[in-house]
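Hi Y.,

Following your request, here is the sequence exactly as I used it, all 294 residues.
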Amino acid sequence: MTSAAVLERISIVTPLGVRLRDESTRGYVTEALSVVVYPKLQPELRTSGVLNSGTVFVFRNLPGLREIEQGDGDDVFWSVQTPPQFDFVLEVRDTAGRHLPFLLPITLPQRRILSLDLTSPPASPLVLQNGHEEGYLPLFPSPAGFVPDGMGSLYAELTDALTMGPAAWAVVEAKAGEQRLVTGVADRQGRLLLPLFYPKPVITLGSPGSVNTPLTQQSWAVDMTVRYRPRDPVPEIPNLVDILTQPLASAWIETSPPAEWTKGTLRFGRELAPEDQMGNVMPRLLITPAGTPP
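Below is the corresponding structure, written out as C-alpha cells. Let me know if you'd prefer a different format.
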C-alpha cells in the first residue's frame, strides 16, 4: 500500500462572487455581461469577473487584497481572524443592451455570493450588503431588450413633471391578477419596458349555459406603483441602492385635468400602455411626488 504525505497545502480565497438575475423572468444571466470591480478611489484599477462553471462571476487578484486571497478561508479565517474591509465599486453592464447598467458600492472581502437585504417595500431604508450561497443582484430589462415568448409587456415614457425632462431611473412595480409583483426601471431617457406574466386564463368549458371567451380576447387588470427621486445631474449609470430606495411617486396621464394612473389593462397578445378614459393610448406619463398633481 502506497501512502502519500501532504508536504504543503495551498488555499486561495476568492474575495467576491456575483450572480445576476433578470427580475422579470427570474432567470440567471451569464452571457454578454461586463462585470467589473475597482477600488472606490481608483476606477482605473478595474478587474473583470470570470464566469465559473455555474452562474457566478468570481474575482481574483484584486488591488490590495493579495494577503487576504492567500488566507486559509476557513471558519477561523472568517470569524476569529476577521479580515479588514476595503471599499470597492461593482459595475455591471449588458454589452448586448438587454438589461440596464448599474454600479454598487461594496466592501470586500465577501465570504459568500454577494446579495442585498431588501425590505418590503423596496423603498424602505434598510438596504444592506450581505451574502449567502443563493445570493444574487437584480438586473432590469432595458427598452432595447426583448419580451420572452408567452409574456405580455408594459411600455411607457416617464417624464419628470417639474423639469419636463426624462424621469430617469424611475421604478415601476406592476402586478397582473394573481401573478407576482414585477419590478422594472426606466432608462436614462425615461423609457420603460416591463415584461409581465399573463394571469391564468378564464376557462368555462363544461359549465352549463356558459360562453367561453377565447384567450386572444381576454384581459386582466394590472395594478401599478411608481417610485422616483429627481437627480441633478442625471448619472450615466445609476447606483443600485439609489434605485431601490426611491420614494413613492404618482404617475399622471396628460388629460384635462390630468388623471392619476394606478391601473392598466393587460390584453393577451397586445402591449400594455397608459390609456385615457376613451381608450386612447397615452404613452407619456408625468411623474410627481406622491399625491401631488402636475
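The chain has a mean pLDDT of 86.

Thanks again,
Q.
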